[in-house]
Amino acid sequence: MNKAVICTKHKKGALIASRLKRIGLDVVEDTSFDTDSMGTFDMEIARTLSPIDAAQHKAKVATTVNNTQFGIGSEGTFGQGPYAGIVNWCEEVLCLYDAESDHAIYAFAQGPISVNTVNINSAAQLIEITQSSLGQRWMITLPSGVEKGLSINDIHHLIERARVSFPFTLMPDYRACYCTERQEIIKQAADDLIKRFNAKCPTCNKPNFVVNKTVEGLPCEYCGFPTHQVKRRITTCDYCHYQRDEPVSTLASQQYCQLCNP
Ligand SMILES: [Zn+2]
Ligand SMILES: [Zn+2]
Question: Which end of the chain offers a freer environment for a tag, N or C, measured as fewer CB atoms within 10 Å?
Fold first, then answer.
């Protein structure tokens, strides 16, 4: 087994460790490096890097700080997805960095997150909201600052001690250890990493040999006009640059044709 270090204060290693064992990686958490210094969900610290660059930076730091060959970086983003304004969307990227070859594999997963910021007007509403998302922790802004990682008991405590009174705003704590829905998406990203790790280049046998470019223009089945459907899938090896170019053998359905179905 190869040791792969993930710097996290939010227990991300535990989410992915059993999965990544399957590809021979022994995931070890390093809690000493504060990845929050690179930006936080509540924007107390602004994020400056793109999610991919942030994940890569975290993975590289993990290898240098711990003097290991493999490092893992994880970065999540919340916001606009395919149902912008209706559903809160989470995108996760995992980076596996190999310091020996100086190569990185990026794996992805995304999905909806049902928990949202809500205005709480009564005890009954508080119970309803917290029970519909068991395991989720919350944040509340107090005059003294933001209280984070709150369980339902913590919130009751704040109410009993008159530190919080109705109505108040309840915000989900999206940190990985406090957001169960996000944990599932991180696990899916780990599954994508496994798929990529196992996809070996036929020439050099290095990983991550997956389709990384598509070309549109598949001809319409009826009139032959090029559509926006994919006509070629291209896979280029990150290491030796061997390229596989696979033409799509079918024709596009008329429904995608600008001439037949304008
Ligand atoms: Zn057509
Ligand atoms: Zn190759």
Answer: C
Examine the domain organization and report whether 102 and 151 are in the same domain.
no
Do residues 135 and 110 touch, judged by C-beta distance below 8 A?
A: no
**pLDDT value of residue 87:** 80
Kindly give the interhelix angle for 123-131 and 152-160, rounded to the nearest 10 degrees.
160
pLDDT of residue 240: 96
Q: How far is the CA of 224 from the centre of ligand 1 (A)?
A: 6
- Measured in angstroms, how far is the CA atom of residue 209 from the centroid of ligand 2? 8
**Are 36 and 92 found together in one domain?**
yes
Which pLDDT value is given to residue 42?
60
Is-contact 92 109, C-beta < 8 A? yes
Q: What is the pLDDT of residue 86?
A: 75
pLDDT of residue 237: 97
123 and 166 housed in the same domain? yes
Residues with CB under 5 A from ligand 1 (ion): 220, 222-223, 225, 257, 259-260
228 and 128 both lie in a single domain: no
**Which residue range forms the structural domain that includes residue 86?**
2-114+180-198
Looking at the structure, tell me whether residues 13 and 97 fall in a common domain. Answer: yes
17/25 Cα distance (integer angstroms): 8
Q: What 8-state DSSP symbol labels residue 206?
A: -
